[in-house]
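In practice, a research group might receive sequence data for several interacting partners and want a quick structural hypothesis before committing to experiments. The following worked case mirrors that situation: the sequences arrive first, and a predicted assembly follows.
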Amino acid sequence: MGTNKNILGLVFASIHDDTILDLTKHRTMGSVPFGGRYRLIDFPLSNFVNSGITQVGVITKRNYGSLLDHIGSGREWDLASKKGGLHLLPPFSHTSSTIYSGRLDALGNIWSFVEHAPCGYVVLSNCDVVTNIDFRPAIAAHIESGADITAIYAKGYYDQATSTAATIFEVDDKGFVTDIAVDPPMTGECNLGLDMFVMSKDFLRKIVKESMSRNRYSLRRDILLDRNANYKVLGYEHKSYFSKIDSLADYFQANLDLLDTAKRNALFTKSAPIYTNTKDNAPVHFGSDAIIKNSLIADGCMIEGRVENCVLFRGVKVGKNTIIRDSIIMQGGAIGTDGSIRNIIADRNVNISDDRQLTGSKGYPLFIGKGAEI
Amino acid sequence: MYIKKDVVAMLLAGGQGSRLYALTHDMAKPAVPFGGKYRLIDFPLSNCTNSGIDTVGVLTQYQPLVLNDYIGNGQPWDLDKMNGGVHVLPPYETSKGASWYEGTANAIYQNISFVDRYDPEYVVVLGGDHIYKMNYSKMIAFHKAQKADLTIAVLDVPLSEASRMGIMTCNDEMRVTDFTEKPKEPKSTLASMGIYVFTWSKLKKYLIENENANTGSKDFGKDIIPAMLNAGERLYAYTFEGYWKDVGTLDSLWDANMDLLAENEQLDLYDSEWRIYSRHENLPPQFIGPTAKIQRSMISEGSVIHGESENSVIFGGVTIEEGAEVHYSIVMPGTVIKKGAVVKYAIVGENCVIGENARIGEQPENYPNRDEWSIAVVGHNITVGDGKTVAPKAILSESI
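A structural hypothesis for the assembly, expressed as tokens:
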């Protein structure tokens, strides 16, 4: 893996926080726990690093305590570096910074960072798409095509009834985007935008400066949807597994998707690992009466009961004679004995006493807030 | 410029561990995997960092490649320090020539200049092949309170085991009056754990004298301790209570792993106040498939289990295919157990492939000649072909 010194990666850790308010009440989208031992920002950060992008800025807005704790110096992603490396960019980090509304004014706030980063191109990514993507072919396609913007999309099923923030692309046979719509009234297979973009720094500077002077802030509304601007937008299709998290039900399903071996193998590959903070938990301890089926279990768990179709994060305890099915239990969850639990999402450090019956439904999982005692 | 340290730890990690046979063929004993995600050296290194000792010399000699990689800059144990930290110390050539470490005392002798850089008051000498959690700072405090020259950590062992160990006789104040290596008729049951706190100025003096006397053994137990005792130095025994296991043999290594599965485990690896740290690969959580059967096991990150694991310790990145069975066994990182294979009472090394329907080991009840029974061992990076058998007590060091 060669390094790609000419590229700057920028992650928006707080964009779309409001789509899953339950989970982002105390944290940014980027620090939402996912898949047993990860947080959502691990995916864009690992994707950058695995694509040889070793200078990365993380743009945050509020509630970023857990994000700072998680990322630290960036060492876990090999981004603790004297040249490039990881830069946290909270609001007010630069002289002209204020609280931003969209990606354009967020970029305006930290423009001096982008300006001084030694790069010709910038790759933007949000934290609400779980996927393993190599940006290098997208960057190559962008440069070769002469496009102003390259937007990365993937083919997926779109349903207007459940979608809250989908960008749908129409693409011609040369790959250029001919139409863009947000949450159009339709249902079916289409090209779903993944909110990942490649641009030259010069082009990004131009749109950021112009937008600032006209008090525009939305990359999607003011640049992509603005047909008058007539920018040349290339579509780049990402063909591997992805999951876009726009709601609590999406989040639930994206976690349970990891129980599918093909999807899990597409996400966690040997050649492009997903890196995360390590916690030094001991291996999982399964008791004499434990029964485990079809579950993803992180280190430090102690399981005495029955677990089926679940994702258990680090250090979860499941007591004797408890049956837990189709559920997501985040780090430090403690579930007592003789319980029956189905279709729940338990945020971190939830304590569920003995003999408890908790049931949600598949499309509407029961959410239990951080640190709750039940 | 070095800032003075009160304590420096010296970890003896150069031993071959020949009684672990195939498992130490190409790695030093302290690098041998243990307990699902650790290597033996994690225990003394974690004990050091948890005890507030931030300067550790690791003396390596035999097959150091895996160990060196593993220790790296010491970051997993918080031992990547600007001042202090972990230092790997292999033998080196000087203007007087070059020599291997000839014994435990000689290994420290050859690194006197390393220790002197930190000008410590005390030096803790540790082995790399024991499983235990211990707060060395309490032992150092005891050493200071007794104004001791040497404090030896001791464990009260059953009389039957005393003749295999270094045995201390003490007065009421725990001052050592006699020390005998492997006594035929033990006078006491206080056994040395191979953990020493020395006052550095004293240790240095005796190391130099021992080197000049050229005893041939140059060993702490055989030379340094008897010499200090004879000279009337203040030697004290510090009693340790808790889990401690020497894992120098295949049987004891297997036993110590099985101890982790006990309902009332004495070695609590889940204690967040005294974590055992380790360097590990970035692997996704383990996946337990729909056909898996797991009972009384410890399983680590990155493993994919579709078969059966009963009473076993399964390390990271292990695959147990559907229809494969693992009972009362230890399966080290990266190994694949193919479908239909049965592994019983065995230790399987790192990155092995156990072929379809192969059979490794056997439970003692099923074995006609019990005296000939022992656990089966497959070394590292070995392929056992489809349908092949590895008998109990066999130690496989090449693919079959």
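Before designing any experiment, note the following. The mean pLDDT of chain A is 89. Residues 213 and 267 of chain A are 41 Å apart (CA to CA).
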